[in-house]
Specification:
This protein is α+β, with helices and mostly antiparallel strands and 460 residues long. 37% of the residues lie in helices and 23% in strands.
Length: 460
């Protein structure tokens, strides 16, 4: 395989280009004026801040290993240690020790957290005594966990975490796709609490690693570094409009640029695009893949970043931020206190306190139709209610991510298998991105590198 075109310059496509370095001539086509997708660093009050993902999963190695390989090893940094808190029942309450994605394993710690009513705590504690049958088909997170632990656990513990990751709803998200470790235990047909305890005990390292790491200066440095190190030709402002197979079995890409149309050919192609965009390009070649990709829903979100003067603020919050359960009816789904969480940012701007609030879950598109000023005022009002009267910010910035997060609905893994089977019938074509095996940065890096390996294997 002498040449490959990667369509999409987010971290998935760039990871594919990195994997192909030295083995093929690679061109990356990116419709935006810069690479990186949802890894983007902007500025507020002259300070660098992340507008999309602010950290890399460290419990799985793909993202942090690639960051180190492209020269960012010294920039990787741990967040400040702080409990994960939930704003509910009028206060910030920490998730209890021992929970697994919001699933409680210690009734005593759960009772002390104040997250649930006494009845909710008792219902959750009864999970160990309930009969369990092996789970034989995919169900929603809410359907399974509410039956095992009661609705309060789902509403006030699991749902806020899922909202932070997927901007999704527990009654729509697939247990197998969104919570695979829990699903694997459910398929064994035993009570979850003792199984989760054993899993934690067996997998606990002597020195537990941090769950995530950041990049000093912002995660936007990560895709830029991969782009610079992969050796690929990077064409920004270039949108692929159609694909065609030539009589010689090569892929021809018709694209548009600011300077007019562009036609390119290559031996192989990687589609590192959102599901709906990949569907458009595959429609003439695989109606089945197009239909399945088009059926994946997406949530839109917005990030409201605010800078406060430390000298003028009435109050500055402690901790790293909080999550919000939708059952409480608030606009916010999460807040991150960046100046507390990341030491590099506090050092860069010692006189300013920066935080960001996240808004938008699946089904809340109407809320995001509001003007920026409305989202800012709502965010400030709810922050004051959650943490105290901080006063007014000296600068604000609203970043919107339209259809930014794919939703892993019930049957998602089976859908992905059908997509990959259909796309696999096309020669020298691979798919990668957040729509398939995980929405996090590490999962996206993994799919990009695997797509490149698949192309090289097929050509061998």
């Amino acid at each position: 395989m002498r040449s490959v075109i990667v369509v999409g310059g987010g971290i998935s496509g760039l990871a594919a280009a990195w994997q192909l370095r030295g083995q093929a001539d690679v061109t990356v086509l990116e419709s935006a004026p810069r690479v990186g997708g949802k890894l983007r660093t902007g500025t507020i009050a002259g300070i660098a801040v992340d507008e999309g993902a602010e950290s890399l999963m460290a419990l799985r190695p793909e993202a942090v290993e690639l960051a180190a390989a492209v020269g960012l090893g010294d920039a990787l940094c741990d967040p400040a240690q702080a409990p994960t808190t939930v704003w509910t029942h009028g206060a910030l309450r920490p998730l209890p020790a021992g929970h697994v994605m919001g699933v409680p394993t210690d009734p005593g710690a759960l009772a002390a957290s104040g997250l649930l009513s006494p009845e909710g705590v008792a219902r959750a504690a009864a999970e160990e005594t309930l009969p369990a049958e092996p789970l034989t088909e995919d169900v929603s997170v809410a359907q399974y966990l509410a039956a095992r632990f009661g609705r309060e656990v789902v509403d006030r513990m699991v749902e806020p975490l899922l909202g932070g990751v997927y901007a999704g709803r527990a009654d729509r998200l697939s247990l197998r796709a969104a919570m695979p470790r829990v699903a694997a235990l459910a398929e064994q047909g035993e009570a979850l609490v003792p199984a989760l305890r054993r899993m934690r005990a067996a997998g606990a390292p002597r020195s537990a690693p941090v769950a995530v790491q950041g990049v000093a200066g912002g995660t936007g440095r990560f895709p830029a570094a991969v782009a610079a190190a992969c050796g690929a030709r990077i064409l920004t402002g270039t949108t692929a409009r159609s694909l065609a197979l030539t009589p010689a079995g090569r892929w021809r890409v018709q694209a548009v640029t600011d300077d007019g149309p562009l036609t390119m050919e290559a031996d192989g192609i990687v589609l590192a695009l959102p599901a709906f965009a990949a569907a458009e390009l595959l429609r003439p070649h695989s109606p089945l893949a197009e239909a399945e990709l088009s059926a994946i829903p997406h949530a839109s979100t917005a990030v409201v970043t605010m800078a406060f003067s430390r000298a003028q603020a009435h109050f500055l919050p402690q901790g790293n931020g909080f999550l919000v359960p939708p059952v409480d009816g608030h606009t916010l789904k999460a807040a991150s206190f960046l100046s507390n969480k990341w030491a590099w940012l506090a050092r860069a701007a010692p006189d300013v306190f920066v935080l960001r609030a996240s808004i938008g879950r699946i089904g809340e598109e109407g809320l995001l139709d509001r003007p920026d000023r409305v989202l800012v005022r709502r965010a400030i009002a709810e922050l004051h209610r959650a943490v105290g009267p901080m006063g007014e910010p000296v600068a604000t910035r609203v970043t919107r991510w339209d259809r930014g997060l794919p939703q892993y609905g019930v049957g998602h893994r089976e859908r992905v298998a059908r997509i990959r089977e259909a796309a696999g019938k096309l020669p020298a074509l691979a798919l990668c991105g957040a729509a398939y095996e995980g929405v996090g940065v590490a999962a996206c890096v993994a799919t990009g590198r695997q797509a490149a390996r698949d192309l090289l294997t097929a050509a061998a």
